[in-house]
Amino acid sequence: MSRFRNEVIHLQSHIRTLRLGAGALLVVALVMGGGWWSAPRDLTIHVPPDLRSGSTRKWWQVPPESVYAFTFYVFQQLNRWPTDGEKDYERNLFALSPYFTPSCQAFLKADFETRRNQGELRQRVRGVYEIPGRGYGDNPGARVRAVSDNDWVVTLDLSADEYYGAEQIKRALVRYAIKVARADVDPSRNPFGLVLDCYEGSPQRIEIPAAETPARGASALQGANP
Fold this sequence. Notes:
This protein is an alpha+beta fold.
């Protein structure tokens, strides 16, 4: 009889141990579930465009090549007027608004109004592109200057071409110094987490040797505005 009593006691002890284990597993699952729920749903990691060599960096750091690529992409899209500058420029300002600071957005709107009132947009076709030999890879240190961990100044050497109908009316070789800031406030509309803060100083005309001059189309007139 005592043997059966001992067996019952042993089984009860085992069941109690299993209950404690199940309770501990439940607590661990709840803790892990809370951690999973509070974890960020999206994580932006900036990977250098050139992947020929490895790269190790902290995930929150933005490499200068990514800053340059972002700046050039947004600025090129802003200045792409495929049919009519009066409509295209305004549409670009609206479409790219998440990539500008509020002050830069106000500056560009004022620039749009000024150019439209002066007749510099109607039926204008415009595009900008890097001057060959003056991209990021040719002189990285001169293209991106870090002001702080969250602010940069990017130098773009671009050729700006404008057409009125089939006639090219402008080719301006211009150096733009553009301020860039980190503002990861709306990942759904701006997955880069970067914004342009417009110019650091006025755009400057540049002179380059004839051998480096971009050859695209016939000879062009130099316009008043870059």
